[in-house]
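Lab manual, section 2.4: Encoding a predicted structure.

Procedure: take the sequence of the chain (287 residues), apply the prediction step described in section 2.3, and record the output as structure tokens. A sample record is shown.
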Amino acid sequence: MEPVLVTGAAGGPQGSTGRHLTALLLGRGIPVRALVHTDDDRTGPLRALGAEVVVGDLRDIAITRAALDGVQHAYFTYPVLDGLVDAAGAFAVAARDAGVRRAVAVSQLAAGPQALTPRMRQHWVAEQILDWAGIGAIHLRAAVFHENLARIADTGDGTRLTMPMGPPTTVLPLIAATDVARVAAGLLADPDRPAASVLLLTGDVLPIGEAARLLGRTYTDTPPDHWRRWALEFYGSAHAAEHLSKLWEIFRLLGEGTGLYQVTPEIEKYGGHPPTTLAQFAAHRSR
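Recorded output:
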């Protein structure tokens, strides 16, 4: 059986969908070639699970070609850092040359050419690149990860969730990274299963005040410029700080959302599990 290539397999602070997916596929008896950027203490558990670990930069076409050699099904994800379009280009060319038949890629909920954040527009460009390669791309347009919201909540004095989202009634679409991984696992374990080329993934929809409460915090609004400066220091990336600042601005402007966001059935359909609510995520996290 050919291995499935999983990029971003080591996981990181932004959701770790690649790490979750690696465990899910190996648990089904499907071999995994795990591409990681750095060989550190995160790769030991991958090897212990049985993954073949390849180390290198996804943007490097030579590395990506080698990683995709003999692969027909693959998973593409890239952290909220500079380099997404470069990585998508290298992956698309290498996957096309390798004869990949299905590639599942993580995107963002509102990706599009007129999207209001540069990252969302880059995701749309990455989608086009993967589509043009003719590799059976399926784009998972995911909402805000529970994990990312919790990471922000864990900063400061531990009592507040401080974000520039206006009143506590501002609505936020959310999803667990594990649910994104489950959907990807379902699509890659059964690569002949029909699916739309774009799947919207939202697992929970909550006002930010209620989301904060579930995480054991009190929501506190803060000026956007103040949060942007904090984010630049916290994430150490101008790309991440700019994207998230713009993202919160969008939600702030949309306010209560007026029914714009809906929990999507694709999570259970392809992932085989009902969406994980933020309440469930928070309860599991506190154990």
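Check your result against the sample. The chain has a mean pLDDT of 95.
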